[in-house]
């Protein structure tokens, strides 16, 4: 049975220069698609992969990654707010289809409720100081 | 009874001045009564923070070796074109400038992620900015090309000069059409889907001094986190518009041209801003102190969002076609409540300028005055008032016919 999953891999510093994904693909006969990768030599690496293959091979591949010391998470896209860039203007308030933004009556600052967010991304280009960011 | 500016400045110097923000004064005067409040209060501070498109900065880069005459040549800062039409080493960058290769609205709505406003923000933040310039050579200025990083700390003068800021009230925007529109007033949903507004209301400088009794040319102000001055009335200064009984203009009215040392400023109050489908601009923080010289002046600072009326304009048709006609009039108290009712429909509202940061600016200016580091100046000349006869004219278009052979 074929399976296809999106996963987030976090490589600790000691693994960054090892050919782990190469082995994953070759030794377990999996196809992959890189959705995002940021790997800096001598630092932590992050990779978002879509992996497709036989269920058994997929499970063995994940076991291999675990054993190698790679941290694995299911893909979780989320929109976050860069607090340094947000000016609390409020342009996002009516733009958001699910009302994830609201105005605090006291401080007049804009509150962002990430739990309400459906990750549609409308606010990302709509935010005048570009404070909203999409993360994998 | 009157107070003089000298008395107020003396108290500021002694650290004894009583300073309240334009929000605080309302409750204070209510509690104490106008007469008692007038005796006690020296200064009321105002603040506003929002996109102000007619902003820009000029600076002098110093002379290169060999010398180069930028004037009449071309110059780019982080790929954004600057105006090179002055002497050898001076440049001006406008907030709305875009890189030549920005796709604009070719794929609508354009993103407009980077432009002149962002260059100004990065300069103020102390970041290196790429300068690339070309020019023609002369005997005294032979150099023709320059490609170098520049940094604000190395510039001889770096000056923010905004030809129109701090609008005294402004249009409230709505969309009567059946498709989403992308405007400088933000994204407007079809069929009156939302309303956007853009003023600091009761904190806004010119709404607290509606007849320009204390704010004039030469007034010292908070500008972009530093100290600046009112240089002139802003372009499109239009004091004669319809006003409420309290003197509050019902639409865009007075404006300020402001100037200040960019090197003192803070990127928290000068933020590069992108309006989807419209362009780039600069969000500017301005605060103006109002010396309480008379009860009349104090009375004007007691304005609240209930007293300020905004005119709702259709940005799908009336605005672009320069057609008069208002959809409705609403108060800023209604707008700030998050929804207004027009023609029986409940419409959500949003602001494009930051009320919390406007409040922060009024508070910061208050603390400068309380500490004795910021004295109030008397204007050297007044802004044109309601009796000046000054009003904004639309463009007087005189088409050039085909018979004008000399142009061909």
UniProtKB/TrEMBL annotation, chain A:
Keyword Methyltransferase appears in the UniProt entry: no
Molecular-function annotations in GO: 4 iron, 4 sulfur cluster binding; metal ion binding
Domain 4Fe-4S ferredoxin-type: 77-106, 108-136
SUPFAM superfamilies: 4Fe-4S ferredoxins (SSF54862), ACT-like (SSF55021)
Alphabetized Pfam families for the sequence: Fer4_7, NIL
Record's keyword terms, sorted: 4Fe-4S, Electron transport, Iron, Iron-sulfur, Metal-binding, Repeat, Transport
Entry coiled-coil feature ranges: none
SMART domains noted in UniProt: NIL
Keyword 4Fe-4S: yes
InterPro entries: 4Fe4S_Fe-S-bd, 4Fe4S_Fe_S_CS, ACT-like_dom_sf, Fe-S_Ferredoxin, NIL_domain
Protein name stated in the entry: (Fe-S)-binding protein
Species per Swiss-Prot/TrEMBL record: Dehalococcoides mccartyi
